[in-house]
Write a structure and sequence with these properties.
- The structure holds two protein chains of two kinds.
- Chain A is an alpha/beta fold.
- In chain A, 45% of the residues lie in helices and 15% in strands.
- A four-stranded parallel sheet of chain A has the order 2-1-3-4, with helices on both faces.
- In chain A, helix 1 packs across helix 4 (93-102), helix 2 crosses helix 3 (70-78) and helix 4 (93-102) packs antiparallel against helix 5.
- Chain B has helices at residues 15-25, 35-38, 41-50, 61-72, 85-93, 123-134, 152-155, and strands spanning 3-9, 29-33, 55-59, 78-82, 100-105, 113-116, 119-121, 138-141, 150-151.
- In chain B, the strands form two sheets. A seven-stranded mixed sheet of chain B has the order 3-2-4-1-5-8-9, sandwiched between helices. Chain B has a two-stranded antiparallel sheet with strand order 6-7.
- Chain B is globular, with a radius of gyration of 15 Å.
- Classes of the chains: A alpha/beta, B alpha/beta.
- The A-B interface holds A 11, 39-45, 66-73, 76-77, 80 and B 10-15, 18-19, 42, 46-47, 49-51, 83, 105-109, 117-118.
Chain lengths: 130, 162
């Protein structure tokens, strides 16, 4: 099965920083691109995302920081009509690591579903430990 | 007075609007005033999906101007978003009467000069800004509520007459 490529689109330096953090845990990473919305209009950001996902004929995943932000909104617009490309919002380090460990075993849509589930499971509260 | 914010921002609905301004002011409605977006059902649905808990009204300049006073007198709170100074000017010339527009994001494009990190203007933008100021509409540059607002004409003084 072909590797599912990813594009991280996030505010400020988050995408680059998150990838650096993931590399500290996982090791060197290839086939992941990062993009910041900083200084970009809606049209410019959408065009940059569209450019990144254009070669993904076998599919890919666009990973964004939060629902309703420009990274998410432009991701939706830029992947319109691209059924083989899946979008996941609310990305955290556990999700990115799970992507890296599983991107050669799933196709894009199934991988995105898995990442959503893993992300939701990754958030836990602990308190009052003796 | 239902209007909480009139904002010029080429990203329309996005993080700063939803999180920074939205969570502080809790608008019940967001008006996106944009002829192109209003003409596309797909774009309208996308904008509505970004803020599921808020009513999003995507309308033309003509419709927004006609309904501006009714929203002012309505209950609840509302934001109005336009993508550029030209649309803000058309809205005011069509009859809307905001005290001020918040200038929140006019990002770089070829031919535009930098005013600050998130505001870039060309000659057309400056003509629209002068027209708005001449009608008494203030232009306040401020990306998020925690930032200090500055008058656009202070950051980008009109050039001296030749």
């Amino acid at each position: 099965m072909a590797r599912v490529p990813a594009l991280l689109v996030m505010h400020g330096d988050l995408a680059a920083a998150l990838l650096r953090a993931a590399e500290q845990v996982y090791g060197p990473v290839s086939d992941v691109e990062v993009l910041s919305n900083q200084g970009l209009s809606r049209d410019a950001l959408e065009a940059r995302i569209r450019e990144c996902v254009r070669p993904w004929e076998q599919g890919g995943v666009v990973l964004t920081d939060f629902w309703g932000g420009s990274c998410h909104a432009c991701g939706v617009s830029a992947t319109r009509g691209r059924d083989e490309v899946a979008l996941v919002t609310g990305i955290n380090l556990p999700i990115l690591l799970d992507y890296l460990h599983n991107r050669d075993q799933f196709e894009a849509g199934a991988l995105a579903e898995r990442l959503q589930k893993k992300g939701q499971e990754s958030i836990r509260v602990q308190r009052g430990l003796p | 007075m239902s209007w909480l914010l009139h904002r010029i921002d080429d990203r329309l609905i996005h993080g700063q609007v939803v999180v920074a301004w939205g969570q502080r002011m809790n608008p019940r409605r967001i008006w996106v005033v944009d002829d192109a977006v209003a003409a596309s059902a797909w774009e309208r649905e996308l904008l509505q999906s970004l803020v599921p808990d808020v009513e999003v009204r995507v309308v033309t300049v003509t419709l927004a101007a006609a309904e501006w006073a009714a929203e002012r007198d309505a209950a609840g709170g509302a934001f109005l978003l336009v993508r550029d100074l030209a649309t803000a000017r058309r809205l005011v010339e069509a009859g809307a009467e905001p005290r001020a527009f918040n200038v929140g994001g006019l990002h770089y494009a070829p031919g535009k000069d930098k005013v600050n990190e998130y505001v870039y203007l060309d000659a057309h933008d400056r003509a629209d800004a002068r027209a708005l100021l001449a009608r008494g509409t203030a232009l306040e540059v401020q990306d998020v509520p925690a930032a200090r607002p500055a008058a656009l004409q202070q950051l980008d003084p009109p050039s001296a007459p030749e």
